[in-house]
Fold this sequence. Notes:
The protein has a single domain, classed as Growth Hormone, Chain: A. The chain has 19 helices and two strands. The longest helix has 32 residues, at 62-93. The protein has helices at residues 20-50, 52-56, 62-93, 96-116, 120-123, 126-154, 162-190, 193-200, 202-219, 226-233, 241-248, 250-280, 286-314, 316-339, 343-369, 377-394, 396-407, 410-428, 435-439, and strands at residues 5-8, 16-19. A two-stranded antiparallel sheet has the order 1-2. β1 (5-8) and β2 (16-19) form a beta hairpin. It is globular, with a radius of gyration of 21 Å.
Amino acid sequence: MSSSATTLSIDDERPQTVSTSERRRILAACFVGATIEWYDFFIYGAAAALVLAPQFFPNVSPLAGTLAALATFSVGFIARPLGGMVMGHFGDRIGRKPMLVLTLAIMGLSTLLIGLLPNYESIGIAAPILLVVLRLLQGFGVGGEWGAAVLMAVEHAPARQRALYGAFPQMGIPAGIILSVLAFIAVGSWLPSDAFQSWGWRIPFLLSAILIVVGFVVRMTISESPVFQRLEKTREISRSPLLGVLMEHPMALIAGTATIIGSTTLGYLVLVYMPSYGTSVLKLPRNLMLDFTLLAATIWFLMTLVFAHFSDRFSVRRVYLIAAAAGILWAIPFFMLVDSTSIPAMTLAYSVMAVVIAGLLGAQSALIASLFPPAMRFSGISIVANVGAILGGGIAPLIATSLYAYYGSSMAIALYVAAMVVISFLGTLYRSKHTDEFFAPSGPGKDLR
């Protein structure tokens, strides 16, 4: 039985055809691969907040140990721009698909080795040093993952469904979080607390080996982006895409980076900082905080497609601006509700914040991809995503911990979060000259947004 086909015309006057079954494999590859990548990344975040301090930084105070562990989480973000630039360059030069496979290999290997890494008691100062090295490798791999997955999705998308297709790699983020949290809850419930703190935390890292095999199988079966195929056929591949995007599109880079900052700040605050805040400051049980993380990730996962649909229907910029405004207004109520330690109040706080994050990410892929021309699109969105992630999510847990230590109040954190989302609101107002062409249903020139 033959599959139905969808005509693609993004950045190409001559439509290309991709079968329905092929589109499904591509979306599955983007979703599953991103899920694996972010499972790996966030099990480290959960471990950093909950158990890594005594394992790798035992000779300091609890606060200093927590700061040191969260600092190793932030270290991963240092390598992300380098990974994004390298993967972006080769993604624009040799294709999107090879980068999908390479990022998975780098991320998977580094995560597996973290699960096998001896602690400070076993090998002394070498333990935290090797931990930092592996975190740098993780960050390098993640640096190219988002750009590759997003472009494979949106560049295969039918007209008027750019945001919907671009939402699938975004949904991989909460899916990976859900799996990582479930893994920690399961292991923590199965093992006594002492065993979990001593060696049980390693199990979620080692389980990633199974997911990596699944990811490779899926990603090896998909075809290259039709946009990149067209660039190859017409010999329009840029010789220096990284230099080109830096020289020719500086405003798009600045605006796109600003746009990313707010969503990553909100995401990493909820998923990385709040488990530590809840257990160390509010003295709430570890599993309760993981339950709230799971709640937020589940709502985020379910609502991302809804907001992606709204983005395709009403405009990605409009949806992003509304979600950013909601994030600014909700920052203070979020912490007030969480600080009450009331289960219903905390449930409301996490639920609304998850909807806000879903609103941002449902529109984000298509919005950022529309800022750059196809020949240097991978390089452009990789720079934007990774620099924005550093300035937003990468330092958010560390800054939040430091603000509370200095002021002794969560209101300082709330104001910081709101300020980061204001930056995103302002960045989203920028409109690239390539946006209309990107969203046009039948080639360049028709202004839909």
